[in-house]
Design a protein that fits this description.
Chain A: Keywords: Heme, Iron, Membrane, Metal-binding, Transmembrane, Transmembrane helix. The complex is a heterodimer of chains A (about 130) and B (about 130). Chain A is mainly α. Chain A has helices spanning about 20-50, 50-65, 65-90, 100-125. Chain B has helices spanning about 5, 15-20, 25-55, 60-70, 70-100, 100-130. The chains are: A mainly alpha (about 130), B mainly alpha (about 130).
C-alpha cells in the first residue's frame, strides 16, 4: 500500500496529452458512469413491474430536460465504452499494436461513439419517424 | 551480537514470502472473466439498445408485453446479470488503482459488490414478476 512518497498512478503531470491517453482515461470514466447508469436500468424495470402509474412516472422523469441530458450522456458513454471495448478486445487478440494503428483506432473509437450517439438521437428526436 | 543480527527475524527465502501474493492468485481469472462478460455485453448491449429504441413511444401495456415475451425476458436477465458482473470487475480495478488508503479501498470494494448483487437481484425479480404475472 501507499505508505510511500514516490509518485503514484495516474502520472498525469508528466505526460503530454495525446489521443491514446484520452481514449484510455475515457474508457475508465465511461465505465464508472455506466456502472452508475446501471441503476437506471434497475429503476426502469422496477417501475415497469410496479404498475402503469409508476411506469408513467418513470417515463416523465427520464423525459424531463434533466433526464434527457443524462440520457444523452449515458448513451454516449455506452457507445464509447462499446466502441473502445471492441478495440481493446481486438488488441487482446494481439492486433493493432503499431503506434500509427494505435493512434488511428483511438480516434476511431472517439469518432464512432459520437456518430452512433448522433444517429440514435436523430432517430429518437425525429418527429413521427421513430415508431 | 550486532544490531544488524537482531533486525533480521525472518529467515525465509524472499521468494517463499512473495509466492501466493499479487498476480499469482486469481488475476488471470479476473482478466478472463472481464473479457468474457465484455464479449457477451457487446451482443446483449446492442440487443438492449435496439429493444429500448423499439419501445420509444410504447404505452405501458406494450412495454410490459414486450418484456414478458420469453426470449426478451431471458435476454434481459442475461443482460442485467452480465452488466453488473462486468461493472463490479471494472470498478474493482479502478478502486484498486486509485484508492490508496487501505480501509477506504476495502470498504468500497465490499460496497460495490453488495450494491451490484442487490441491483442484479432486484432486476431479475422485476423481470420475473413481469414475465410470470398475466
Amino acid at each position: 500500500m501507499a505508505d510511500t512518497q514516490r509518485p503514484l498512478s495516474p502520472h498525469l503531470q508528466v505526460y503530454r496529452w495525446q489521443v491514446q491517453m484520452v481514449s484510455s482515461i475515457l474508457h475508465r470514466a465511461t465505465g464508472i458512469a455506466l456502472a452508475v447508469g446501471s441503476l437506471l436500468v434497475v429503476c426502469g424495470l422496477l417501475h415497469l413491474a410496479a404498475g402503469e402509474e409508476s411506469f408513467n412516472y418513470f417515463k416523465s422523469l427520464i423525459g424531463s430536460p434533466v433526464g434527457l441530458v443524462l440520457l444523452v450522456g449515458w448513451s454516449w458513454a455506452l457507445f464509447y465504452h462499446l466502441c473502445n471495448g471492441i478495440r481493446h478486445l481486438v488488441q487482446d487478440v494481439g492486433l493493432g499494436y503499431g503506434i500509427p494503428q494505435f493512434v488511428r483506432s483511438s480516434w476511431l473509437s472517439v469518432a464512432g461513439s459520437i456518430v452512433l450517439t448522433v444517429l440514435v438521437w436523430a432517430y429518437v428526436l425525429t418527429p413521427g419517424g421513430a415508431a | 551480537m550486532s544490531a544488524k543480527d537482531v533486525v533480521v527475524k525472518d529467515r525465509r527465502n524472499p521468494l517463499k514470502v512473495a509466492r501466493g501474493l499479487g498476480s499469482s492468485q486469481s488475476g488471470v481469472g479476473h482478466w478472463w472473466t472481464q473479457r468474457l462478460t465484455a464479449v457477451a455485453l457487446v451482443l446483449l448491449g446492442v440487443w438492449f439498445v435496439v429493444t429500448v429504441l423499439c419501445l420509444l413511444h410504447a404505452d405501458y401495456a406494450t412495454a410490459r408485453a414486450t418484456v414478458a415475451k420469453p426470449w426478451n425476458a431471458l435476454l434481459l436477465i442475461a443482460f442485467v446479470l452480465t452488466m453488473f458482473w462486468h461493472a463490479v470487475l471494472g470498478l474493482q480495478v479502478v478502486i484498486e488503482d486509485y484508492v490508496h488508503v487501505r480501509w477506504k479501498e476495502v470498504v468500497l470494494l465490499v460496497a460495490i459488490k453488495f450494491l451490484a448483487v442487490l441491483g442484479a437481484l432486484a432486476s431479475v425479480l422485476a423481470v420475473l414478476r413481469i414475465a410470470l404475472t398475466p
